[in-house]
Amino acid sequence: MPQILIPDWSSAQERAFRRSPMTFAHRLRDTGLVEDEALAKLLDDYPAELYDINLFDFDNDGRMTLRTGARGRLPGDEVLEGVKQGRMWLQLRSVHEHHPALGRAVIQAYDELARYNPSFRPVQMTGQLILSAPQAKVPFHVDAPGVILFHLRGRKRLWIYPSDEAHMPQRAMEDIMLKQTSEDLPYSRAMDSAAQVVELEEGFAATWPMHAPHRVENVEGFNVSLSTDYQTWGSRLTNGAHYANGVFRRWGLPIAAMEKTPIAARAGLWAVGSMLRRAGVVEGRIHAFERSFELGVEA
Fold first, then answer.
1. Contacts of 252 (CB under 8 A, 6+ apart)
2. How do strand 124-132 and strand 88-92 relate by DSSP bridges?
3. Which of 9, 108, 261, 270 has its CA 20 to 30 A from that of 278?
4. Dihedral of CA 269/174/285/216: which sign?
5. Looking at residue 225, which CATH number applies to its domain?
6. 3-class secondary structure, 101
7. How far apart are CA 289 and CA 149, in angstroms?
8. Residues 6+ apart with CB under 8 A from 164
9. Is 111 a member of any domain?
10. Residues 69-126 pLDDT 10s
11. What is the extent of the structural domain holding 149?
12. Do residues 2 and 70 lie in contact, with contact meaning Cβ atoms separated by under 8 Å?
């Protein structure tokens, strides 16, 4: 593994980190962990229950329909070839736990980012390795935790939108935290005028402000990315406050805008939200997707 994975960091990057969309260079591909032979072996060995296999279809307005598939019995090299030749998007969840070498690399990268940015102190991190075809797209959506996307192979384009009421309504985030809806959001191409477009080449990473919605299109070649989600105490308090507000809204109580809610108030809402969650006052509606195809049987 390279001694340094994040080779340099400027004062402009320090100012932008987690405050606005930005990119930075990394050396994760130099580990050799995402070349074809290593990926094929990983696909052979990886627990089938941690595979997410999706086919996205888009209409002329960019609206998405989704089919979800099962791992099947294909050997890893054939799964890899299937991703390269189709429109498939394959995610291996929890790589920080089930791929120790890649997990160590991610921890090192995060440690280096924390040295560059002393206020960055994640309390939780998870990693997902994403393999996607040259024509694959990811629809307009939001992630509840913070995200750092390390791009490793191919080229992709990200549209990152403001986290304002027009693009990321507070009520929608409350519903996501209450598991009433998925992280996909209503989208129209007219929204693109407000987006910041990021071209992501291999060897670069992208990150953006918490709760900024975004969408992704592969531009060239077979794409491999390592998507890492992190939680800080600040993000935990904010998400917990959204949970509590979602319950209060259902009870007809007044809700303050999150940007006008100070951190002390968010901490109080987080504590209340934790009790409400344990009490199960709102039943989640998000369940496992029905898997409509199996690799090697139907695509």
1. none
2. antiparallel
3. 261
4. negative
5. 2.60.120.650
6. helix
7. 24
8. none
9. yes
10. 666 677 889 889 888 887 678 999 999 899 999 999 999 999 999 999 999 999 999 9
11. 11-168+179-232
12. no
